[in-house]
Amino acid sequence: VLSNIILLLPYLKLLLHQENLTLEVVQFLFLTMIILSCSEDNRLEKSLIEKSTMQIDKTSIIILGTIQDAGSPQIACKKKCCAHLYTNPDNNRQVVSLGLIDTENHKTYLFDATPDIGRQMKRLTNYDRKSTNEIVDGIFLTHAHIGHYTGLMYLGKEAMDSKGIPVYAMPKMKDFLSNNGPWNLLVSRKNIALHELENEKYIELSKSIQITPLLVPHRDEFSETVGYKIKGPNKSALFIPDIDKWEKWDKNIIDELAMVDYAFLDATFYSGKELQNRDISEIPHPFIIESFEKFKALNEQERNKIVFIHFNHTNPIINPNSMETRSVIEKGFRIARINDVFEL
After folding, report:
1. What is the pLDDT of residues 26-71, one digit of tens each?
2. For a pLDDT cut of 90, what percent of the chain falls above it?
3. What is the pLDDT at residue 273?
4. pLDDT at 117
5. What is the mean pLDDT of residues 149-154?
6. Which of 117, 139, 233, 337 could form a disulfide with 208 if both were Cys (CB 3.0 to 4.6 A apart)?
7. How far apart are CA 129 and CA 53, in angstroms?
8. ω into residue 171 within 30 of 0, thus cis?
9. How confident is the model at residue 93 (pLDDT cuts 50, 70, 90)?
10. Across the beta sheet with 107-111, what order do the strands follow?
C-alpha cells in the first residue's frame, strides 16, 4: 500500500496546484486511492493463497520439502549453486519433510520436524479446507540430525507454545528429547507428548492408516535412525531420507520396494564429485549413481516407484533442467518436488 501511495504523490501535487480543486476533493481522491490500493493488495494476497494451496479429497502424502538438513543455500557456501540464492531465495528449497493428510478424519501428520516447520505445517493443514485446525495431529521423527527434529523448537514458549502435540519417536530419540535441553523443556511444559515407537511394530492412526518404523544404519550420535512404512487405504509408501549405504542395511531394499507403491529414498548426493572440501567417507549416503546400479535390474513399474529425495545443496538434480535430472528421468525414476501429491 505504502509503495503505491508513494508512486501517486507526484500526481497529488499536480492536483493541488489546480485552482478549481478544493482540499476536500483532494482528500477524497487520496482516501479513495488508498482504499483501492488496499483492495488490490487483498485480491493479490487472496490469489496467492489460492494458488499455493489446493484441496485434497483422498488420503495422500504431500512433499513439503526436499533439501538436506542444512538447507539451500547452505551456510558459508561459496559455490555457484548458492551464490544467487542469498539475495534471491527460492521458497521451494525447504528441508525434507513429508505430510500425511487423512481426509476421512480430517487429520494431518508431519514426518520430521524441520527448521521450515512453520511454512510446512501451514501448507499441510491448508490442504483440507473442511478443517479449521492449523496444528498437525502428530509428528513422526526419523532421527536426531539437525534437519529432522530441530523444528520442534518452534513448538515451545518462545513461539507457538503448543499444547500436547503427539511426537512419535524411537526409544533413544525419546530419551534424547527427554533428558537434554532445550528439548526437555518442551516435554516438561507439555508442549509435546512423546510416544515411544518399537522397530517394525506398526501403530494405527485410523482404521485405514498404519505407520511402521524401520531401523536403518546411519550416523547415530544421539539416537537411532528409522525410515517409515506408511500404509494407507489403498496404497503404501516407504520413506527413508537418510541411510549410509543400501548394502549396510539388514534388509534388502529390492524386497522392500516390492511391498510398497512409492519409495521416497535418500538421494543426498548425485556422486562423490560434488564435495571437494569434505571427506565423503564421513558423510556416507547412497549416491544416485550407486542407486542406478543397485536398481538397474528393476522393471519399469518398479523403477517408477522410486522417488529420490533429500538433496544436498550441491546436488545437480535440484535443477529441473540439469543433465543429471534428465538422466534420472530417462532411467525411469522420479524426483521429489515440493507440493507433489501421492494418493494412498
Report:
1. 565 555 555 544 444 444 344 334 444 577 889 999 999 999 876 6
2. 60
3. 67
4. 95
5. 96
6. 233
7. 10
8. no
9. confident
10. 192-196, 165-169, 139-140, 107-111, 97-102, 60-65, 341-343
Which residue in the block uniquely carries the three cell numbers 538436506?
68
Task: Write out pLDDT tens, residues 239-253.
Answer: 999 898 999 999 999
Residues written for the chain: 344
Q: How far apart are CA 163 and CA 171, in angstroms?
A: 22
Three-state DSSP state, 193: strand
Cell of 114: 524441520
pLDDT at 38: 47
Q: Which of 195, 328, 186 is nearest to 270 (CA)?
A: 328
- Report CA torsion sign: 309, 312, 317, 323: negative
3-state DSSP call for residue 166? strand
C-alpha cell, 281: 567417507
Separation between Cα atoms, residue 3 and residue 15, nearest integer Å: 19
- Contact present, 112 and 77 (Cβ < 8 Å): no
User: What is the residue-wise DSSP string for 203-261?
Assistant: EEEETTEEEEEEE-----SSS--EEEEEE-SS-EEEEES--S-GGGSSS-HHHHHHT-S
pTM: 0.81
- Distance between CA atoms of 110 and 196, rounded to whole angstroms? 16
